[in-house]
Each structure stands twice: as C-alpha cells, then as structure tokens.
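Lab notebook page, bench 4
Experiment: in silico fold of construct C2
Operator: M.H.
Input chain length: 144 residues
Purpose: comparison with the prior construct
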Amino acid sequence: MQKSLESYLETAEGAGMVLAHARLLIKLTRLYQEIAPPHLGQASHLANYKSGIIVIHAASGAVAAKLRQLAPTLAGGFSKRGVECSDVQIKVQADETGKQSMTSTQKPLSARTSLELEGLRDSLPESPLRAALETLLTRAAKLE
C-alpha cells in the first residue's frame, strides 16, 4: 500500500520530526528576537535547539562576546516563556567567504590626524606601540 506524501511527512518515521523541529526553531527565533537587545538580535540569529541548549550564531566576535555575557539572561528569558533552556551557546558564524562579517566600516584619517600620529610614531623608541602606530598609518584610509 502506497502512502501519500503528506501522510508520510506527518509520521514520526518520515519527515514529521524534521517538520516539528523546524516549527520549534521558528517559534524560538521569534522569542529570541523579543528577548535579545535589538542591536544584538540584528547581528545574530538562533541556529539550533537540542536537549535544552539553544545555539546562537553571531555575526562577529564582538557580538559573540557580548552575547556570551548575556547568556544567563537569555536562558532565563527563554525559561520564563516556557522553553526548557539549561544553556545558551554562542558561536561566531562566518559569512559565505569564510570570513567573519565586518560590522564596522573603515573610517579615514584626516591629514592633520595622520601628521600627528606620524609625529608621535617618530618620537617613540622602537617598541610594540611604535609598530602598532606604523601599522595603523599604513592601513588607514586617508582623506585627501
């Protein structure tokens, strides 16, 4: 006897478990957007839920660090809304190119700032600070 596709998808042996998990993730995503601070919610997304652990993917290391600080608060927020949540794990999710997304843009240095930094660099002895200033001056975009 041949089952219809719909009845197969509804059964536990079929894709029913996958569909149920997908529905749960949609619900949890909505809750996450309510719980997370707006600026962090925009730079991250709920990735998975398994055995009481919610996994969040952050767009950058900075976003991940802040979310890790908020993990107990996030877990509490899910629990208050009826979700069994023992932990919130935060991972940095690379973009399609394999690099972390850049949430900030490079800001150019004015001619005056460049000159002042060059003067500071030249006044310093060989040191990590001098090397860091050299790198900054080499890489920074300059206003013309």
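Observations: The beta strands are 44-50, 53-58, 87-92. DSSP finds six helices and three strands in the chain.
Next step: discuss at group meeting.
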